[in-house]
Amino acid sequence: MASRYHEVYARWKADPDGFWAEAAEAIDWSRRWDKVFDGDQGVYGRWFTGAECNTCWNAVDRHVEGGRADQLALIYDSPITGAQAKYTYAELKAEVEALAAVLREQGVDKGDRVIIYMPMVPQAVFAMLACARLGAVHSVVFGGFAAKELATRIDDSTPKLIISASCGIEPGRIVPYKPLLDGAIALSRHKPERCVILQREQFSCDLIEGRDVDYAEAVDAAKTAGTAVPCVPVAATDPLYILYTSGTTGQPKGVVRDNGGHMVALKWSMENEYGVKPGEVFWAASDVGWVVGHSYIVYAPLLHGCTTVLFEGKPVGTPDAGTFWRVISEHGVVALFTAPTAFRAIKGQDIEGVFVKKYDLSKFRTLFLAGERADPETIKWAEQKLERPVIDHWWQTETGYPISQNPVGLGQLPVKYGSPAVAMPGYDVQVLDDAGHPVARGTLGNVVIKLPLPPGCFPTLWQAEERFRQAYLEEFPGYYKTADAGYIDDDGYLFIMARTDDIINVAGHRLSTGGMEEVLAEHPDVAECAVIGIADAMKGQIPCGFVVLNAGIERDHGEIEKEIVALVRERIGPVAAFKMVVTIKRLPKTRSGKILRGTMQKIADHEEWKMPATIDDPAILDEITTALRQRSAAV
Ligand code: COA
Ligand code: AMP
Fold first, then answer.
1. Residue-wise pLDDT tens digits, 515-544
2. Closest Cα to atom 6, ligand 1: which residue?
3. Which domains can be identified in the chain, with CATH numbers?
4. Which residues belong to any copy of the Acetyl-coenzyme A synthetase N-terminal domain (predicted)?
5. C-alpha to C-alpha distance for 272 and 112, rounded to whole angstroms
6. Strands across the sheet with 429-432, in order?
């Protein structure tokens, strides 16, 4: 089939308002918009101003009323616990409505914030949708973050209530959530009034009298009472959620997502970009704590009337490298979306693809990869073993859905390995030099998007409009700065090569090295430090810390390094995957005092590097090379 991509992209470019107005017809509105796009509102304009809608209605109730009541909406598959559960759209509605009744009884109203700190269980999805039903704003916090990170998010979003669980489960260990939750509330200035706690059978926790509510008891009572909770109409521009993502400091950025534009964009993406039809089974093997989980485990598949899969497990080890293929065959999955790191993990354990052959993948059509650069070797391996298209696509927490992709829904374009293909309708992607001038095709530069951003992208940061302007809009006036470096080739294909800031991508998880440096600097023996991301065959990158100790420290350096590793785990959480510290005598700096992190990274990755002309003392780089060599010999 010839691709319609070029025609559709040109149609969007010629008439963006007309294009999005047409896409918006696929959504139910309780009040239609005054303007499709109003450039006078918000920082760079707002979409569907004047309109009213409800995201839960469109994701759940509409399908119950429209003939999908008995179709599966959600399949929970948990190889880590051995549990499975299935919910039809009617059952999903009953769960969501009952939880919404509980939240309303606890005083949650339109506009109130609710933090959801949950493992990958169906109740996490119910919680998100229950908030959406009430017009409350959820903020999901990934379970691998520590108490301090949770406390930062509590203080920033000031939730009225937190929904959590007794534990998460990682391979070989139970992660009790309650001590993390209580620790976070003790640390935070803002104190939520209530916590609703789901007791899991693997591990139960004590509840605090007067503050904590038992999830199951409260939901059962609401179901018995049969309390109806209608979907509360909200402005299309009202926030649906806040999702914190790493910024360039330890203070994460609260990415805000609205209701109206978000629904329009996600619904459009399912058919046109992912090539999936209502009623089909779609699986994003991510976590609800990340944007991929928000968009493609929960909202997009449900808005589209699909069946979504919620997977509590890992690509390998739960129990083996065939788990993904087992889930696909057992549930009839047509499209899988995951991070390249998951495939590198599978490939590492099943290079011959023995497990792939064991399962019936006849319904499976496409594999989508995102979250980090997909290395061509991994893509080729997946293509060979699966004998299906493997689609690399590029996006960010900020955009909420793909910026560039090979749009299988519109007809697949030729694949270029290493490229997440072409800009999607809505996105005018350009590459500028540091002075803000367009560069020639094929030349590396700053990847930017011409404003306005399309519907679904973030309109601002939560209560931080100035930070939003400064971080994203100021450097290249008229454009959104993606903070990715890359180039566009003669055919319009994008190549995303690296971040231009301090963000690193560890196993598909976005982390700030600046945030880690803040933690290292807290250790009493550390005088100076730098954290860089170094190459890792499975996780893509892993953090590596360099520390200079205070003068006169005589303690064993190995002990101090262990303490530093433990400190990062305690402050940021296990997800930081911070396990490597190298003690050095001095940090390499320019004469003006800037730490030469780029050169350090090249040395650590055994890449070719040039002596920076501005270096203060070239001998320091030899010291670093020696320290790294000694460390590798010791490990
Ligand atoms: N709760 C508590 N701890 C968690 C956690 C959670 N939700 N998620 C991860 N962790 C812990 C892990 O147990 C591990 O702890 P350890 O240091 O004690 O071993 C640590 O955080 C690092 O986790 P991770 O980097 O994920 O490594 P891993 O070895 O556990 O798994 C992969 C590696 C590749 C299998 C896994 O990272 C993966 O599936 N990644 C895909 C990521 C993804 O879906 N990204 C979203 C974009 S699509
Ligand atoms: P996150 O906000 O966690 O989704 O991370 C976004 C960042 O991940 C982007 O800015 C990129 O640096 C990187 N990224 C995501 N998808 C891709 C991709 N397909 N190719 C290259 N980098 C990617």
1. 999 999 999 999 999 999 999 999 999 999
2. 144
3. 5-313+393-486 (3.40.50.12780), 507-634 (3.30.300.30)
4. 5-59
5. 34
6. 429-432, 445-450, 479-488, 494-499
